[in-house]
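Researcher: I've got a protein sequence and the SMILES for copper (II) ion. Could you write out the 3D structure of the bound complex as structure tokens? I'd like something to compare against our soaking experiments later this week.
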Amino acid sequence: MTDSVRDLPDAEHPLESVRTRRRFLLEASLATALAACGRPEQRGGGEHKEGAEARGRGAPQANVHQSRTGDRNPDSQIDTTLHHAMPSSSAVDTTTTASNVQFHRYDPALPPVSAERTTRLHFTSRDANIRVNEDTVIAAWTFEGDVPGPIVHVRQGDTIEFTLTNHGRIPHSMDFHAAQINPKTAFRSIMPGESLSFTFSPKYAGVYLYHCGTAPVLMHLGSGMFGALVVDPPTPLRKAKEFVLVQNEYYLGGAQNGIAPLDYTKMLVTLPDLFAFNGRPGQYDAAPIHVKQGDLVRFYIANAGPTHSCAFHVVGEQFDTVYLGAPPANAIHGVQTFDVAAGGGMIFEMQADVAGEFVFVNHSFGHGQKGAIGRLIVDA
Ligand SMILES: [Cu+2]
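Model: Sure. Here is the predicted complex with copper (II) ion in place.
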């Protein structure tokens, strides 16, 4: 039970009757479920850094490779069982303190696309303490130790060979919104120490969320397990200064050693403490994004939520083009603000023809005020 609900006796808490029923089901089923999972096994080999490897173009087909333990958990209902055993907040590692956790700015620049047509990704899921601003360090669950996880950049029709290795303390999984694949196998949860691999080929261009899909998804998304995958169309869009912004919400529990867990009960209430672009509230206000006058600026906006939308707006500018779906089609022009749904992604373009300082913001202003805000400096 977290600080925020500690003052309510369990029996009086509105969620507690649900929890009591769940606990009963848990106790009846957890032992069976864990027995079915067997012992975690470490997958050998593999690379731990994002990389690319040419495999020829061919006609890639979505494909799932089971790890050696994979066939023991073919039914994603295991998630439903396991999630009852989860804590109501991410756990704080009390062997460290917030003062040991340094801030780093998350680079919003879209990395260049590889010349190779096959991208091999090996992500680890792992716990990490992240300083999100001067006052706040969170006990996050992450892909690759950061929030968001790495920005991935490929082209439509490329092959992505993906492996997840779970270095966390609870089950995790991976759900790529750019994939068309059987989620019951590819997006299933794996236990700590296990790996799973699957292959897919993005059918459409755009900016797509990826996230942990382990139940309750709200808790895993809300604890930092998300990132963005940018898919270029076969004919590249016009040359531009390109930036990726992933919006998310934070729901903070009571800090221990200055480190705040993420609080599931607050996530259910859906009143966030903080909003952020790329995991750190206001980081691009403190250290703005720079372009030159005359540049075409392209923002890839993905919204991790877990709950609220992002009314993306640039003060003093208009979007010449917003791609609601796969570019270069699905374009609307002359747009002041457009809502990117939780779990969605859209591409926003503006010609930086006026020099100055332009605030970009979630124009649902209570949310902008809580950190979904930054500055674009157009240098003359
Ligand atoms: Cu997870």
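Model: Residues 264-379 form a domain with the Immunoglobulin-like fold (CATH 2.60.40.420). The chain is about 15% helix and 35% strand.
Researcher: Great, I'll pass this along to the crystallography team.
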